[in-house]
Amino acid sequence: MAIRVQVAAFDPGAEVNALHAANMGVGAVVSFVGYVRDFNDGREVAGMFLEHYPGMTEKALAKIMVEAEQRWPLLSLEVLHRIGALEPGEPIVFVGVASAHRQAAFDACAFVMDYLKTRAPFWKKEQTAEGPRWVEGRASDEAAADRWK
Amino acid sequence: MKLNVVFFARYREALGLDSESVDGEFASIDQLRAHLAQRGGAWQILAESNLMCARNEELCKLDEGLADGDEVAFFPPVTGG
C-alpha cells in the first residue's frame, strides 16, 4: 500500500507499470487518473489550486485503502494525489490497484475513488475569467459512495 | 478544556483564520460549532447544513464528544479527486 501526496507532476503510465513489475502473481491492474479540465460548471477554467489538511489527508487515505484491502484480495494498491497549483490537462489523482483477477481490481478502484471523493480532505479552487471560486461538493458523489455500504 | 480549532478552504477564507485556540466546556463538536457560529458575521458560515468536521484528524459526526487538547476541524464538503 502506497500513499503519496505531492506537489510534483507524475507519469500515470510509469505508475501503472510499477504496479505489476514487482509481482508476477499480478494478473490484473486497474487504474484511474483524474485530470484538470479547462471548463467546469459553465466557466472556462485557467487553473486550479488544491488545498488539503496535512496529517489528516494521509490518515483518511490510509483508512480508505485498508478498507479496500479488507474487502477485496488485492496484491498492490497505490493512491497518489497532487496538491498546490495545477493547470488544465494535468493529472490530479491516480488510483492503481493490482490483483490476481480483474473483478477485484475494478471494484476496489471504483470504491477507493468514491470514498476519496467524499472522505479525503482535499478542496479545489478554480481560477476562472470571472475570478476564483471554490468547487462545490456534489450530491452525485455522495450517492456513488453510498452504493458501497 | 482547551481545543485547537482549524478551518479549511472556503471557511478558512471567510473567517480570515486558519486556526484558533478555544477555551471552554463543550459536550460535543456541535456545541463548539454553535458557540463559534453565534459570534455572528462571518462565523455564521459554521451553521451551514453540509458542514463537515473532524476530531484529531479523523472524520466524525457533530455529536462527537471532546477532550482537553483535541484538534477540531471544520470544513465544507470535500472536493478532491
In short:
Chain A is α+β, with helices and mostly antiparallel strands. Chain A has helices spanning 12-21, 56-71, 102-119, 139-146; strands at 2-6, 28-35, 39-40, 43-52, 74-82, 84-86, 91-99, 122-128, 131-134. Helices cover 20% and strands 28% of the residues of chain B.
Describe the structure.
The complex is a heterodimer of chains A (149) and B (81). By secondary structure, chain A is α+β, with helices and mostly antiparallel strands. In chain A, 35% of the residues lie in helices and 38% in strands. Chain A is built from four helices and nine strands, in the order βαβββαβββαββα. Chain A has helices spanning 12-21, 56-71, 102-119, 139-146, and strands spanning 2-6, 28-35, 39-40, 43-52, 74-82, 84-86, 91-99, 122-128, 131-134. In chain A, strands 3, 4, 6, 8 and 9 form a five-stranded antiparallel beta sheet that branches. In chain A, α3 crosses α4. Chain A is globular, with a radius of gyration of 16 Å. The model of chain A has no long low-confidence stretch (mean pLDDT 96). With 81 residues, chain B is an alpha+beta fold. Chain B is 20% helix and 28% strand. Chain B is built from two helices and five strands, in the order βαβαβββ. Chain B has helices at 9-15, 29-37; strands spanning 2-7, 19-23, 52-55, 58-60, 71-75. The mean pLDDT of chain B is 98. Chain B: Keywords: Nucleotide-binding. Chain B: This is Molybdopterin synthase sulfur carrier subunit. Chain B: It comes from Pseudomonas psychrophila.
